[in-house]
Automatic annotation (TrEMBL):
Protein keywords: Cytoplasm, Disulfide bond, Phosphoprotein
Superkingdom of this protein's organism: Eukaryota
Matches recorded under PANTHER family: OBSCURIN, SI:DKEY-31G6.6
Principal subcellular localisation of the protein: cytoplasm
Compartments where located: Cytoplasm
A Pfam family recorded for this sequence: I-set
Domain named Ig-like: residues: 2-86
PROSITE patterns: IG_LIKE, IG_MHC
GO CC term, one of those recorded: cytoplasm
Protein name in the entry: OBSCN protein
Amino acid sequence: EPDVTIVSGLKDVVVSEGDDVTFRCQVSHENARDVEWKLQDVALQNNEMNEISVEKGKIHTLTLRKVTEQDIGTVTFRVGPHTSTA
């Protein structure tokens, strides 16, 4: 299995309370496994508040819906041993 690396990392975002915010991270290979999103070191699951998806096979996206002050913190994308934070 090829070593999947991060080609384009996360970017810092400033957003107003109540808005949605999307983070994108591009990886080197399609169908990457061992992928994880975290907010403030808490693993995120795909649900009504967090939309986790993959576009074009390589662009992993995380959308946080209707953010609140409690959502302030570091977002981390990890694939295998590689991480990107914003």
